[in-house]
Design the sequence.
């Protein structure tokens, strides 16, 4: 029972490099989200998707792109990494309905030098 | 907009002490309320939830009651263990139709010492 799987677990990039954080879920959830977690700031929503082909911006979308070609996968792309994007990134999925809980991956710890 | 307020901590308790972590919220609709727990190096996982006023969520000895009149959802446990050391997040999902965004509190770090 895999749930939400994120890869890689750790990554170090240089400023200006690009990369893609992978996220996959096996629960057939329609809703998927990307968050970043920073000390003293809790979780902030980057982008979210309500189904294949449909994405929207969250609180802090600048510098990130997403796409949702399948129900299972929701990759997050950093276009040109900046030190301010050093953070822990979490992918989450949930069923439709406001009382459905989020299911989180174990996170990707990203450092930008 | 919606918001969730909780203290950041850290909260330091001795083993077997009583735990309360306060959570208050503001929401425009009729939200569902959640507590999530995050152990070191892991993602968040659901601890308990309540979906309407006066509901009590409970799990692993933790409890929280949805209080609409005080807009609160305080987390309690009668006797904490070292293994409860983690970060606890209060969250709400505004059930006002369409995509219900989830709003998280800042997270409260709990340290339980033997």
Sequence:
């Amino acid at each position: 029972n895999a749930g939400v799987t994120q890869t890689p677990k750790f990554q170090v990039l240089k400023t200006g490099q690009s990369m893609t954080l992978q996220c996959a879920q096996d629960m057939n959830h329609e809703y998927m989200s990307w968050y970043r977690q920073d000390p003293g700031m809790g979780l902030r929503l980057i982008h979210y998707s309500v189904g294949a082909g449909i994405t929207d911006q969250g609180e802090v979308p600048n510098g990130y792109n997403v796409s949702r070609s399948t129900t299972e996968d929701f990759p997050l792309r950093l276009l040109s990494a900046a030190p301010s994007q050093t953070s822990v990134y979490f992918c989450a999925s949930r069923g439709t309905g406001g009382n459905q809980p989020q299911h989180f991956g174990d996170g990707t710890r990203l450092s930008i030098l | 907009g919606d918001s969730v307020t909780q203290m950041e901590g850290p909260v330091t308790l001795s083993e077997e002490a009583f735990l309360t972590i306060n959570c208050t919220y503001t929401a425009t609709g009729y939200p569902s309320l959640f507590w999530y727990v995050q152990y070191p190096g892991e993602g968040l996982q659901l601890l308990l939830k309540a979906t309407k006023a006066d509901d009590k969520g409970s799990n692993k000895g933790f409890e929280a009651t949805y209080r609409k009149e005080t807009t609160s959802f305080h987390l309690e446990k009668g006797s904490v263990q070292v293994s409860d050391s983690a970060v606890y997040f209060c969250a709400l999902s505004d059930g006002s139709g369409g995509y219900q965004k989830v709003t998280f509190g800042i997270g409260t770090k709990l340290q339980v010492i033997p």
